[in-house]
């Protein structure tokens, strides 16, 4: 687990509106940073969640250049010439003498609890239909919960929220090493043992880039979608960033016979997360060590961070 340490410097390179197949427009932000050369992303729900580094005014730039990188208010349309004013919607951005965006409630989301997922890239789970993990399901669920007002007892994001998408494939070991880890798992190791056998830490990820991206987006109070306690502690950077609540992500297969991922591999994966990585999962789970103990006593309770 990485220590808090200083924040990386992040720069939003571009933002674009993405009309989605599921309904809402999202705003995809691509980031550069001073720690690695990966293209980390922020999937932002809500036109008014604004990247300070993207909107910061640059010397001698034109309004056209601002619109091309995505530093505009409201909606783009053919013939629009000014980035900082959307006359159709009656929106205008204001800036201070240093060219920093002024946070005004009419144009910029601020000081509100925001539903957030810090998600690590998983090609196999998100693209290759893998039933070894629940990453793809979690990614989809995060988008759905951000768009919804509520789902059962979970309060959604009502169309405002962020999925910080960190290029940390394989809990940071990369896709090639993760494939080797899968082979070791087919040979009987669990996901933690496999990493260690390959001379990698069980989970060497550093979420400081996630913190820096959220702060750049002006997010201050996070309702974090995760079962991973390490992530909860990583979303603390007082006074700028606080985790005010942990919102559990219960695997769909635990609440439905049809939905979700049903495979022997996923049960082992989730069991290892609970037993060996300290993940906080609510549904009773038959643990290796608790074979003959009634399920009700193995419920792992979660704690809402206040
Ligand atoms: N090394 C390794 N990485 C895996 C394995 N299965 C999934 N992963 C990676 O684990 C990461 C999953 O992280 P997240 O989806 O952020 O979830 P989490 O950190 O486990 O915790 P939650 O926020 O509760 O979902 C991704 O980078 C996956 O590629 C595995 O068997 N071995
Ligand atoms: Zn995965």
The stretches of 5 or more residues where confidence is low (pLDDT under 50) are 295-306
For this structure, the CATH topology of the largest domain is Rossmann fold
Order of helices and strands: EEEHHEEEHHEEEHHHEHEH
Q: How many angstroms separate the termini?
A: 23 Å
Mean pLDDT: 90
CATH architecture of the largest domain: 3-Layer(aba) Sandwich
Structure in a nutshell:
It is built from nine helices and eleven strands. By secondary structure, it is an alpha/beta fold. Guanosine-5'-triphosphate binds next to strand 6, helix 4, helix 5 and helix 6.
Topology:
Elements: E1 10-19, E2 25-33, E3 40-45, H1 52-55, H2 63-69, E4 85-86, E5 91-92, E6 113-120, H3 123-126, H4 135-147, E7 150-151, E8 154-155, E9 161-166, H5 174-186, H6 191-197, H7 208-216, E10 221-225, H8 229-234, E11 242-247, H9 264-277
Parallel strand pairs: 6-9, 6-10, 10-11
Antiparallel strand pairs: 1-2, 2-3, 3-9, 4-5, 7-8
Helix pairs in contact: 5-6
The chain binds guanosine-5'-triphosphate and zinc ion.
Zinc ion (ZN) is lined by residues 122, 124-125, 133, 135.
Description of the molecule:
- There is one protein chain.
- This protein has 306 residues and is an alpha/beta fold.
- The chain has two domains: 10-168 and 205-277, Rossmann fold, CATH 3.40.50.10990; 174-204, no CATH class.
- It is 25% helix and 19% strand.
- The chain has helices at 52-55, 63-69, 123-126, 135-147, 174-186, 191-197, 208-216, 229-234, 264-277; strands at residues 10-19, 25-33, 40-45, 85-86, 91-92, 113-120, 150-151, 154-155, 161-166, 221-225, 242-247.
- Helix 5 crosses helix 6 (191-197).
- The longest helix is centred in the C-terminal third of the chain and has 14 residues, at 264-277.
- The chain is globular.
- It starts with 9 loop residues before the first strand and ends in a 29-residue tail after the last helix.
- Bound molecules: guanosine-5'-triphosphate and zinc ion.
- Guanosine-5'-triphosphate is lined by residues 119-122, 133, 135, 138, 168-171, 173, 178, 181, 191, 195, 226-228, 231, 249, 273, 279.
């Amino acid at each position: 687990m990485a220590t808090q340490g200083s924040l990386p410097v992040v720069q939003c390179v571009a933002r674009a509106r993405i009309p989605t197949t599921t309904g809402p427009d999202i705003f995809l932000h691509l980031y550069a940073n001073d720690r690695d050369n990966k293209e980390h992303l922020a999937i932002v729900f809500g036109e008014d969640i604004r990247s300070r580094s993207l909107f910061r005014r640059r010397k001698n730039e034109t309004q056209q250049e601002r619109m091309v990188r995505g530093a505009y208010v409201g909606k783009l349309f053919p013939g629009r010439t000014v980035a900082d004013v959307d006359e159709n919607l009656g929106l205008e951005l204001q800036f201070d003498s240093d060219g920093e965006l002024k946070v005004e409630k009419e144009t910029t989301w601020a000081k509100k609890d925001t539903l957030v997922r810090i998600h690590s890239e998983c090609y196999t789970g998100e693209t290759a239909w893998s039933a070894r993990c629940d990453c793809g399901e979690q990614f989809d669920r995060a988008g759905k919960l951000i768009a919804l007002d509520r789902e059962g007892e979970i309060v959604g994001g009502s169309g405002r929220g962020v999925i910080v998408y960190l290029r940390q494939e394989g809990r940071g070991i990369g896709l090639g090493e993760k494939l080797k880890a899968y082979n070791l798992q087919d040979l009987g190791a669990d996901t933690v043992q496999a990493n260690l056998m390959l001379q990698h830490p069980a989970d060497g990820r550093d979420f400081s880039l996630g913190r820096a991206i959220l702060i750049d987006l002006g997010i201050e109070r996070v309702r974090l979608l995760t079962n991973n306690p390490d992530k909860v502690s990583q979303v603390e950077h007082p006074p700028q960033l606080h985790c005010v609540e942990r919102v559990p992500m219960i695997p769909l297969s635990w609440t439905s016979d049809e939905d979700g991922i049903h495979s022997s591999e996923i049960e082992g994966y989730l069991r290892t997360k609970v037993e060996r990585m300290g993940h906080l999962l609510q549904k009773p789970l038959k643990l290796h060590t608790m074979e003959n103990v009634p399920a009700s006593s193995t419920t792992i309770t979660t704690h809402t961070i206040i």
